């Protein structure tokens, strides 16, 4: 029964915030979108986490400086990731999402009005055009773009192969890549489930990786390097979590 009410409350909350957020954005003509849109998204993300009884701690939040252009990548293994990333988005942030999300009732319109980047995973040429448009916005508005290099949710604890979209965006914009590592979300809400178990998730924001000089020739090495960084950091965070579970005196951030 708890799961039913969690699912119902999540939809009601999401649609409610979507209606209010869309209305405010339209009434203000998008003039305050740099600060207003991330505030709407953060409110949605934190509300959804509260309904799921999921708490989150963030390490390295200072690496998400709201005044600089950057690409924030994150590992994606759970539906919770959407709420987690939304909950930490600073001013001047948008997210890159799959094009299909535009057609979600109310929520799709809200994401559009909040400036989200919709990517067509079935049409690489169209996706590149959308990335080029996002690049211009990044340069003009000093935007942070959140994007999952895996492209979709992993079915296991293992990372999926990294796609090239985030890296093409880095090449076109010259923006650094800030790795955002999420640990614990998969266990609370695996892909086979509609609802979450209560619990705690840790997010670790690593230092920016410069992308100056990144090209089509060096792209494969950068993709492999970033994916290895995620594997190493996730292994470290999981080991820390196991140690804390075995020794209650160990307190994680």
Automatic annotation (TrEMBL):
Q: Which UniProt keywords apply?
A: Acyltransferase, Membrane, Transferase, Transmembrane, Transmembrane helix
Pfam families cross-referenced by the UniProt entry: Acyltransferase (PF01553)
Pathway, per record: Lipid metabolism
Which InterPro entries does the record match to this protein? Plipid/glycerol_acylTrfase
Q: GO MF annotations for this entry?
A: 1-acylglycerol-3-phosphate O-acyltransferase activity
Lineage top rank: taxon: Bacteria
Transmembrane ranges, per UniProt, are 7-32, 101-119
GO biological process assignments: phosphatidic acid biosynthetic process
Q: Which residues form the Phospholipid/glycerol acyltransferase domain?
A: 70-185
Quote the protein name from its UniProt record.
Answer: 1-acyl-sn-glycerol-3-phosphate acyltransferase
Q: Which organism is it from?
A: Polyangium fumosum
